[in-house]
Amino acid sequence: MMRTLCRLVLVVSASLAWAVRVSSSSSLPHFSGGVRVDQQATAVHHHRQDPLPTPCSRPRTEESDILWRHDAVPCSGDRANLPCVIDQFLERDLIMYSTFTLGHEKTVHLRKRRSFGEFLPQQEYDLIDNTALFLTSLILNTLAEKSVVLYHDAQPVTLAILHHLMASSGIQQPIMVLIDITRPSFVEEDWMGEYNDGIYVHIVLFQRTEWVETFASMLPPRVWAPNYLLLINANSTPASPLLAHPRINRGTFVSLFQPQSGAGTSTGYYHIMSYESFRNGSKTRSRGSYKTGVAHSIQEVFPDRFPQFEGHRFHLASWLDDFPYLKTFPGEAEASGMCLRMLQEISTRLNFSYHLYDFPPDKKWGDFFNGSWRGLIGEVYRNEKDFGINQMAMIEDRNQAIDFSVQYWMDSYAFLLPRPKPPPRWWSVSFPFSWTTWAAVVLNLLLIAVVHLGFIKVKALPWDGLSHTLLEVARTVLRQDTAGLSDDNSVRVFQGAWFLVAMVISISYTGNLVAYVTAPTQPTFIRTFHQLSSSTHRPMMADYGSYVPGAMRTSLDPVMRELGRAIELIPYDYSLGLSKVEEQGRAFLEVESYLQYVVILHGARNTYFMTEKYSPTHLAWYFPKHTPWKHKFDRYISAFRESGLCHHWKKETEAKFEEKMNYQRRSLVEEARAQPLTLADCQGAFLVYGVCVGATVLVGLAQFFSILVKDYYEARKHRMNQ
Asked: Residue 432: which residues within 8 A CB-CB, separation 6 or more?
């Protein structure tokens, strides 16, 4: 109650201040008996002390409009980034012609005020007074938290209303942009699409509906679509047909204020007209009234145009091969998936039906190719379909063509690679040490034998040959007793150090050997893009119009650029892709959730997903640019995501499919568990033993032949001596 009373006091005080200012200021238009009296209108520009500079060489005449350039007046407070009207609006007896931004500067065109010497009916003066008071109340109260962009049609009544509005003491700060919609060139300005957000309210004040229709028809497509648009009729003639204009009703909240007339005069009441696109029968209807001086909420000024969709049937841009979001499973007639569950819940609450299509005509997902959009994005962009619910990555290029809903999930692209085969289990005898460690151990044995032999030679100690020395060194590593210690102290110190090193080598090998035999080693998996680019696995991807190949080729990361140049596009056949992965060792790139479905469907057990993922992005539904009813879907999608229903429906879809396929997930390390020893685990020891036996046989044969040769030569020598 106190808030309403305070607002009423503000409106009354603003009205009184306006009346006082009108009566005391000679620069404002005065009205008397239906005739406008402006005694200084013809001489004001000849008596100025500070004439404005003119940007052109056109002579300043009374018959032509005079354009001046004036520096921008900076705004203050929260509206510092909003173009402002200049505060010399009244002092210079000028009417704002248009205001538009050019970068960080602003050019303000001013035009000499038109003469109002013509006779006007008294009811128009009442309408001017009531409309000015109504606008003051609306801006200061209902729209106090918004920034106002004000359009006018430069007609006598609307210009007089603007004079009264700017004369109000309640509007002290320059908070508005004034735009003359009769100037055709302004619709081509760059800033036309910069004030569509919900913090701005666009007000179109007009006297003639044809100017508004012309202005709307000249607007470029997909640019001007204010979230809040308020049409204010400064004429008693009904203007409700304007609400049906396609360029006007694409705003989310659009209202028309039509003045009520009684007994030939304005009453200060306004019909709040709204256009409900999905309403059966007459779509234009009155949603209440606005009374000047009474506090109204912004919900009353801008009523909901889409309370429900009245059984409307939407045609969706869809592709029923998008697991787990929208998919028709083999053997099932009806589609299912997370996004379809969301759509079903929303359609029940908003009262609409829908039709799904198996795939787009060109069988493309949504990329920009040869100057046009293809696939699902193209259908929505050209308004061939109402919207789409397939998973669609929210990227900047697409956002220029369509509008995304709020995001409901995140997904990424992953590479599918052939699972490498584990090494033979008989290699387990060599696994405890790497090849470099084995080489170091062998070289160390030889070095120790040579050093030991050197000590024996220097000290003139007894020895049994090089082979005996090598065996003595190897015995220590194999945990065998030594034949005896030397009596020389220096040799004993050397042998003690070697015993310690040999113990460490022996225990390390034994412990690792037990671990490798009981838990077999895993193969080497590729986990990063850098490893993939350095491998022999050539990347590939199904050709269905994805943005990924182009994004990879133009990436700033050199590794990603290399993969992008190497990627091969194959036909849209995932069985072909999987066969290339398993038989040719290729790397298959696809959305991770869908690629998991393909692996399960085709039983590709000998594959795995690379750990590092590409392009994790938010997913959303997609609508034509500036769809006015998109916010109705956003509300429910946000509720589904925040309540966990999206996650629940996704898991439910995946679990249902895995159960149907009798599938059990397989991890990279599922085989790294204890298993009973088999003959294959012991093959390594037998092979080593076999190699040693073979070496023994070879050495024995060599020794045998050497004896034979020696005996032969000795016998021959003996015969020759005889």
From this structure: 508, 509, 511, 512, 513, 516
Per residue in 166-182, pLDDT tens?
Answer: 776 566 544 567 788 88
Half-sphere exposure (CA, 13 Å, Cβ side) for 184? 3
Domain boundary (518, 547, 566) is at 518
681 backbone dihedrals φ, ψ, rounded to 5°: -70, -30
Q: Return d(Cα 173, Cα 79) in angstroms, integer.
A: 10
* Nearest-10 crossing angle of helices 122-137, 2-24: 130
Inside any domain, residue 36: no
Distance between CA atoms of 11 and 139, rounded to whole angstroms? Answer: 10
Q: Are 8 and 151 part of one and the same domain?
A: yes
Query: Buried (b) or exposed (e) across 571-585, using 16+ Cβ within 10 A?
Result: eeebeebbebbbeee
Q: Who has greater pLDDT, 594 or 60?
A: 594
Q: Which residue has the higher pLDDT, 409 or 471?
A: 409
Return the pLDDT at 112: 35
Among candidate residues 485, 500, 518, the one where a domain is terminated: 518
DSSP designation for 80: T
Domain count, the chain: 3
Amino acid letter at 6?
A: C
Its sign, for the CA torsion 715, 717, 718, 722, is positive
* Secondary structure of 337-392 in HEC code, one letter for each residue: CHHHHHHHHHHHHHCEEEECCCCCCCCCCCCEECCEECHHHHHHHCCCCCEEEEEE
Q: Same domain for 296 and 436?
A: no
Looking at the fold, whether 297 and 161 belong to one and the same domain comes out as: yes
Close Cβ partners of 240 (under 8 Å, ≥ 6 residues apart)? 256, 258, 273, 284
Establish if 243 belongs to a structural domain: yes
Place of tokens 């201040």: 17
| pLDDT for the residue numbered 665 | 63
Q: What is the pLDDT of residue 79?
A: 35
**What is the domain-level CATH number for residue 131?**
3.40.50.2300
Q: Is residue 560 part of a domain?
A: no
Asked if residue 147 and residue 11 are part of one domain, the reply reads yes
* Best CA proximity match to 587, nearest among 621, 610, 619, 612: 610
d(CA 440, CA 321): 57
* Contact in structure between 272 and 288 (CB atoms under 8 Å): yes
Range of the domain at 194: 2-30+122-301
**pLDDT higher than threshold 50 for residue 342:** yes
In a domain, 268, yes or no: yes
